Amino acid sequence: MNLNNIFKRHLQQGRFFDKGKRVVVAVSTGVDSMVLLSLLQRLPETVRPQIVVAHVNHQLRKQSKEEEQFIRHYCSTHHLRLVVYQWAIAEHPTTGIEEAARKIRYHFFNRVMKQEQASVLITAHHKNDLAETMLMKLTRGGQLHQLIGMKEQRDFVDGKLVRPLLDFTKQQLREYAISNHLKWYEDETNYELTVSRNRFRHRIIPLLEAENPNLLDSLSSYHEQLELAVELEDQFAKEQLQRIKDKQGHVNLKQLLQFSLAKERLILLKWLEWSGATNLKQGFIEQLLADINNRHLPQFNCQITPKLILFKNYSELFLKNVNQLPQKAQTSLNSVVKLGRWYPIGNDYQIAVALTKQFFGKTVDYQEMWLAPEQLPLRIRRWQAQDRLPLKNGGHQKISRVLIDQKVPLSERDQQLVIADAKNNIVWAVGRKWGWFTRPNDYLDQWQRLVIGIRDLKRRKE
After folding, report:
1. Amino acid 325: pLDDT
2. Count of other CB atoms within 10 angstroms of residue 44
3. Could you give the 3-state DSSP secondary structure of residue 164?
4. Are 432 and 343 in contact (CB under 8 A)?
5. Quick check: helix, strand or coil at residue 88?
6. Euclidean distance between CA atoms 426 and 388, whole angstroms
7. Phi–psi pair at 138, nearest 5 degrees
8. Residue 210: pLDDT above 60?
9. Max CA pair span of the chain
10. Whole-Å CA distances, 279 to 101, 107, 272, 301
């Protein structure tokens, strides 16, 4: 059976795209992409898609201009829609040119898909590319799912990226190109051994094939097995997360730690990955696991990504977007307390100081306080490291100890407010603990009676 028929049957089995649908085909003018384009063109009309060719002129080599002229002529001759992007030399970075070029290509392909109203991008990656990627991933280390290397189909922006040639070797594609008299261009940079992939392609894989002539098929088989293994891992992690997460999405730490370390690592990684934290470094993951399992570290927070922070809070783990963290406006609150005025405590509470309890009505929790004239006026502010509460026995307790004893999450501690008197003695760690001031015998005549209350806005909404 010739390659055209094999390719047609493979497309029908893989269901890569619907017949007659518009697809974007990435064509570099190398042998792989020219064979892909030819195979798509020669499909029977009943299964052939509408082809839009996308070509990037990187302007990195002398023959880049010739390659662009060639693909323009080819598409004109074969009546194919062509979109070309020229990457300006002035935009080339001084380092990391390969990664920058890759980003430019895929950004361009995405733009073409939107412009042409196509939902599928087709690239010419083949079995040799798959082998190279798998071996490179294996050498670098990482997570099991990364060893899969490449998938035949994956999500790409609002559509999908498909690689219908992953079942075919480079030799098969080259033989097809020769027998069908296709013209293509060789990229001489593909032979530069300073590039990691080229070393695998021209040195490492030939040595491995000398040991096992069926290396490519073996790696392709491992690829399929890995896809199944990762699918089962995902299923297991999803089921366990559903069991140990609450309605707020917080992970029950006690239940998580009941798993073996390997399973705990898997569940944690999948939770982070599905929350948007991907490609985490192995060392970072291991340190995170160590902190989570450290019983002497009941609380901590860790920035997972620029936008995502993980919190360990005694019995649970949870994630917050930086945009969900308390606003800085409250932390700058430092003002004299005016009687009869409500002050916001986050989004859920308000506090006020009044002369009588009638000000608060029946729905507000309040505390009566007697204070000496020299203690007034009161001030509301964020707590400071040196702040201490006066106690009944004549001693003092640091506000930091109050927060620790009451297991206040680290994410909330910086936002803790206090009411201090004119001498900076703490009258109240808001919502946590009251200070004690020993009254003289004549306090009813000499001291000021105040009532301090806190209003729960959540209860009012209910």
Report:
1. 64
2. 9
3. coil
4. no
5. coil
6. 6
7. -60, -40
8. yes
9. 110
10. 20, 20, 10, 20
Amino acid at 183: K
E strands, 307-401, are: 308-313, 316-321, 334-336, 343-345, 349-354, 365-371, 379-382, 388-390, 396-398
Q: What is the DSSP letter of 202?
A: I
Cβ proximity of 177 and 169 under 8 Å: no
Q: Phi and psi of 250, rounded to 5°?
A: -80, 140
The pLDDT value recorded for residue 327 is 52
Sign of the Cα torsion 295, 300, 303, 307 reads positive
Task: Quote the distance between the C-alpha of residue 402 and its chain's center.
Answer: 35
The secondary structure of residue 204, as a DSSP letter, is I
- Encoded tokens for 358: 């009638």
Which structural domains are found in the chain, ordered by start? Answer: 3-222 (3.40.50.620), 245-324 (3.30.465), 330-461 (no CATH)
Handedness of CA 232, 235, 239, 244 (dihedral sign): positive
* Residue 344: half-sphere exposure toward Cβ, Cα within 13 Å: 11
pLDDT tens for 216-266 read 999 999 999 999 999 999 999 999 999 999 999 999 999 999 999 999 999
pLDDT 10s digits, 97-148:
888 999 999 999 999 999 999 999 999 999 999 999 999 999 988 888 889 9
**CA contacts within 13 A on the Cβ side of 423:** 11
